[in-house]
Amino acid sequence: MWRNAPLMLVVGVGCVNLTGSVESTIGAAAALGAWLRARSTRLPWLVRAGFVCLPPRCVFCGGQGDLGAVDLCSLCLETLPFDPMIGRSGGVGQTAVLAPFTYDDPVGSGLRALKFQGDLRPARLFGALLAASAARQGWATPGTVLMPVPLHPKRHAERGFNQAETIARHAALWLGLPVRTDGLVRRRDTAPQTALRGAQRRRNLAQAFAPAAMSGAAIPARFVLVDDVLTTGATLAAARAALREAGRDAVGVWVVATARRRGSVRAQRVIDHDAGEDRHTDPIVEAERAQAVSRLAVASDP
Predict the structure, then answer these.
(1) What is the CATH number for 280?
(2) Alpha carbons 142 and 177: distance in angstroms, whole number
(3) Terminal C-alpha separation, the chain
């Protein structure tokens, strides 16, 4: 199943779809793998020591990891669903979006395991892959600060962690960049986005975020918003709008994956707050919505 992912060749700040060319996928995966191996030697010694005591095991196949201090093997790296438009301008309110993968399996199943089953291993892996992608695209410049999209305190207490923050901290570890969680708060406990369509998502998130006073004398100038998945972009657009209220802005958005049809032309991702219309319908989003409704039905059944 994994081998049906579109094959990509990294070119500058984008990728060219070369489906049918095995060499292109191997080349793109090899580039990320080489970065991970080289960068592993520069991780904090405590992190490296942990992988010496407990050697890396691939999150997807369970085999031995061979890419440095990361739970992934070369074979599974080659089968990941690379997004053909990994780095693109105008993704969320004209803010550039970095999205290495589509929401196809095994990336999608890994993110669901993290979010709904509390499995933190995918967060460590996806943080490393997001860091490698950002570095390869030239987006991890000095002075950049990663700001994860916050959860409402109630949701955070129920889940025990914020998946966006966990991914961001692992990415920051590989890149040597700081993470700030004190500039943005979620003031409304909104309904789960998974069961909502695009226009409903935007209404659901209206005034959901608010800027917060940041501690410290120096307020960073370059923020990058980090989240797990980009679907319609409503969450990230609302978070960015809240930052702008305080005179701050995100220079980019980093997500692990985008929810889009495999192999199709990317749907327009520009989120216009004055236009409350859905611009596309994605079968992956519809499947997630159906699963969420089913889970709610089971939970409410006495």
Answers:
(1) 3.40.50
(2) 7
(3) 37
Domain count, the chain: 1
Cβ proximity of 154 and 186 under 8 Å = no
Expressed as residue numbers, the domain containing 123 is 84-300
92 touches 271 (CB < 8 A): yes
pLDDT one digit per residue (tens) for the chain, 302 residues: 333 333 333 322 333 333 333 335 677 788 899 999 999 999 998 888 888 888 999 999 999 999 999 999 999 999 999 886 665 555 565 578 899 999 999 999 999 999 889 899 999 999 999 999 999 888 898 889 999 999 888 888 888 999 999 999 999 999 999 999 888 888 766 655 555 565 666 666 666 777 787 766 566 778 899 999 998 788 888 888 888 888 888 888 999 999 864 433 333 332 222 223 333 344 444 554 455 444 444 433 44
Burial 8-27 (b: 16+ CB within 10 A, else e): bbbeebebebbeeeeebbeb
On whether residue 40 sits in a domain, the answer given is no
Does 91 fall in a domain? Answer: yes
Q: Give the global pTM.
A: 0.75
Residue 256 and residue 97 in contact, taking contact as beta carbons nearer than 8 Å: no
Does any domain span residue 290?
Answer: yes
Q: What is the C-alpha separation between 80 and 141, in angstroms, rounded?
A: 26
Is 62 inside any structural domain?
Answer: no
Within 13 A of 37's CA, how many CA atoms are on the CB side?
12
C-alpha–C-alpha distance, residues 103 and 121, integer Å: 17
